[in-house]
Design brief:
Elements: E1 9-10, H1 12-20, H2 23-42, E2 57-69, E3 82-90, E4 96-104, E5 113-119, E6 127-128, H3 145-170, E7 172-188, E8 191-201, E9 207-214, E10 226-230, E11 238-240, E12 247-250, E13 254-258, H4 261-290
Parallel strand pairs: 1-13
Antiparallel strand pairs: 2-3, 2-5, 3-4, 5-6, 7-8, 7-10, 8-9, 10-11, 12-13
Length: about 290
């Protein structure tokens, strides 16, 4: 095992490239944050009364006040339209209770009698029997799969980024020499992807090999030497500096990276997504306070 190399500081540009560089990082973060925004906007309008389906309810007689086509689910020509049906009922205490339920397909008329399902102690959750309390059905909760899939991808990529950051910060450096170059059956933008294997030697003289797949083989075979940062405790683990987004330079006590324009653009877009997430969460909170989801 090699001696422990000195620890290096990672510049802000290096962290930006590690966290936001590359198509997989872009996809993961966009699906995660964008999916959360979408769900925060739609969830306040999704019927989730099934969560409290076990609570005690009573049924009272009510009457339709007004009927309109819900803009969530179609228009008047759509046979599967959902109608926003405003109703009222008078409780035994003399209290007049009004609300809006969303009735599928069947268009009621003003003055029609309806049965109102009233959860005991929760007048705000009352609705017409067989209707939706909100315009969107519970099936819309399937959109939660978007941030879940994005979060999984982002978490995996975050692990890779942290591993690379550790190698850049604490890893020993070695020059790699090309051992083999094999063309694969994969193409990216009509350019063939090659599998390049490099051999490098540790400070103690042990030899290891590291493989990278790339469609830009010229980046590894140019005039500049291929540099590998490897774990001094487990020398078989390493990372190509050429494989990192942007141009990375390792100095005596610092790692510097020039952030490319596409990564910086996505970092700015990510900031906008975070702002949108905060705004959508505030919206969902206000909607919940005005009327509980269930």
């Amino acid at each position: 095992m090699d001696d422990k190399p000195p620890k290096r500081k990672l510049s802000a540009g290096t962290w930006i490239n590690l966290l936001f560089g590359g198509l997989l990082n872009w996809t993961g973060w966009t699906l995660l944050i964008g999916g959360l925004i979408l769900n925060a906007l739609l969830m306040p309008n999704t019927d989730m009364t099934f969560i409290r389906a076990d609570r005690e309810t009573v049924e009272v007689k009510g009457f339709v006040l007004d009927v309109n086509v819900s803009h969530y689910m179609g228009n008047k020509r759509n046979k599967k339209a959902v109608y926003a049906t405003k109703w009222y009922t008078v409780l035994e205490t003399g209290k007049r209770l009004e609300g809006t339920s969303y009735v599928k397909e069947e268009q009621l008329r003003r003055g029609d009698g309806v049965q109102i399902v009233l959860p005991v102690g929760h007048d705000e959750a009352a609705k017409i029997r067989g209707s939706l309390a909100r315009p969107l059905p519970p099936s819309w909760l399937g959109l939660l799969l978007i941030p879940l899939s994005g979060g999984t991808l982002a978490l995996v990529r975050l692990g890779h980024s942290c591993r690379k950051a550790s190698l850049l910060s604490r890893g020993a450096l070695a020059h790699g020499s090309l051992v083999s170059k094999t063309r694969t059956n994969v193409e990216v933008n009509e350019s063939p992807v090659y599998s390049l294997t490099y051999r490098y030697s540790t400070r103690s003289g042990e030899a290891f090999e590291l493989t990278v797949r790339t469609s830009d083989s010229a980046r590894y075979e140019g005039e500049h030497a291929v540099i590998i940062a490897y774990d001094h405790r487990r020398p078989s683990r390493g990372v190509f500096l050429h494989a990192l987004p942007g141009m990375t330079r390792i100095e005596a006590d610092r790692v510097r990276t020039e952030v490319d324009s596409s990564t910086m653009a996505f970092a700015c877009f990510f900031g906008m997504l975070l702002f949108g997430l905060i705004a959508s969460c505030l919206y969902a909170t206000l909607m919940f306070q005005a009327r509980p989801f269930w």
